[in-house]
Amino acid sequence: MRGRTAIVTGSTSGIGLAIARALAGEGCNVMLNGLGDPAEIEAARAAIAEASGTRIAFMAADLRSPEAVRALVARTVEDLGPVDILVNNAGVQHVAPLATFPDEQWDLLLAVNLSAAFHASKAVIASMTARRFGRIVNISSALGLVGAPHKPAYVATKHGLIGLTKAVALEVAETGVTCNAVCPGMVMTPIIEMQVADQARVTGLAPEEVVREVFLDNQPIRRPVTAEEIAGAVVFLCSPAGSGVTGTALAVDGGYVAR
Predict the structure, then answer these.
(1) Of 47, 135, 179, 218, which has the fewest beta carbons less than 10 angstroms from its beta carbon?
(2) Sequential DSSP letters for 208-245
(3) In b/e form, how buried is each residue of 173-211, taking b as 16+ CB within 10 angstroms?
């Protein structure tokens, strides 16, 4: 994979940062994207570049905006070269019953979790098919395969990502481009920590009870999946060994959806 160019959205922390590190470790040049303290982001960027010996860039890009998504792709091509790998990882969450779920939160989750993946994929697909190589990986969720209460927008958008994955995979199946989804179970990332707090507020449970009784109750391995385990699945799908895998939703969920 040395010399490939990758974009990983939402890669300044958590799963996205682990994926960026893993792809860089395989020789990819990587465009980081996300929010956070500029000094911390620069430190992470520099550390990945030094460890991997690859070119690592960063662009914030507000993924709620289709124009910003297209600009992220254009900047990547300008700085690092044509995009070979696109990992649509960025995601946001809001927890509330349907009856009181804020309209603006529905719109935000739809824009970041699903529409951004559509716009980014649309921006790279022509170049990928012309070069007869490309890897698109959409980070969905175990909740893209099953439902959950109090998360109508998250469940809907993560299911939508899997539908987008299948549609794109079939469209480009003969071009050397693959499109797959990875569906993590519970991973202790900043977004999960916020979900724990939200669930604690909704259910009245203490945070540690939420982790044990809500998040790990249906995860048979009874521990969080690690961000590095998710990154390993992405690396496989982007590698030559993964070239025959397309249109699939790969659950890396500790058995969550096996029941």
Answers:
(1) 47
(2) HHHIIIIISTT-TT-SPPPHHHHHHHHHHHHSGGGTT-
(3) eeeebbbbbbbbbbbbbebbeebbebbbeeeebeeeebb
| Residues taking part in catalysis | 154
pTM of this structure: 0.93
Q: Enter the DSSP assignment of 110.
A: I
Residue 123 host element (H or E): helix 116-131
Selection from 157, 159, 65, 145 nearest residue 105 by Cα: 157
Amino acid at 119: H
Number of neighbouring beta carbons within 10 Å of residue 119: 20
Partnered with residue 139 across adjacent β-strands are: 182
Question: HSE of 202 in the Cβ direction (CA atoms, 13 Å)?
Answer: 18
Return mean pLDDT, the chain: 95
Q: How many CA atoms lie within 13 A of 129 on its CB side?
A: 15
Tell me the pLDDT tens digit for each residue of 178-217.
999 999 998 988 777 877 888 888 889 998 888 888 778 8
Estimate the crossing angle of helix 227-238 against helix 14-25, to 10 degrees: 50
Determine how β-strand 56-58 pairs with β-strand 85-88: unpaired
Q: Domains, the chain, ranges and CATH?
A: 5-185+226-250 (3.40.50.720), 187-224 (no CATH)
- For the record, the structure tokens of 10 come out as 């939402």
